[in-house]
Specification:
Blueprint: H1 2-20, H2 32-51, H3 66-85, H4 87-101, H5 107-128
Length: 134
């Protein structure tokens, strides 16, 4: 079913991230957080596959979902933009795009969510942790 396909894709993505990201053994460095996220993706993907049997049966299963394809293209563009214009301008452009793609039409909510999310990332990463994003 579609749930099994998406759960397997999530788990596979987690495994790819786990094996691609660097890992420093001596201390907690930049490679640890992606490892934690990838482990969570694998576990959640497996849970989706295991619990999909309880869902309704679907007649047709589509491997290519147009919204998912648009999302993947947006993510790719965002990754490229981070290298070109930096993280914060990219997040200010990409968050509203993602929200519009997934159906949010209230521009006040989109604006507040984008500003609050960007502000929280800045506060936690730059101010509290003292790290700099690209």
């Amino acid at each position: 079913t579609q749930y099994q396909i998406s759960g397997s894709a999530i788990a596979l993505l987690g495994l790819i991230i786990f094996f691609v990201t660097p890992y420093q053994v001596g201390s907690i460095q930049s490679g640890v957080f992606p490892k934690i996220i990838s482990g969570c993706l694998v576990v959640l993907g497996i849970l989706v596959v295991l619990t999909s049997g309880k869902q309704e049966k679907q007649d047709g299963v589509s491997l290519i979902d147009p919204i998912l394809l648009c999302y993947l293209i947006f993510v790719f563009i965002a990754v490229v933009l981070i290298q070109v214009i930096g993280f914060y301008p990219t997040i200010l452009l990409s968050l509203p795009s993602f929200l519009l793609l997934f159906g949010e039409r209230n521009f006040k909510k989109i604006t507040v969510f984008t500003i609050v999310t960007t502000g929280m990332i800045y506060l936690i990463i730059d101010m509290i942790l003292g790290s700099k994003l690209p």
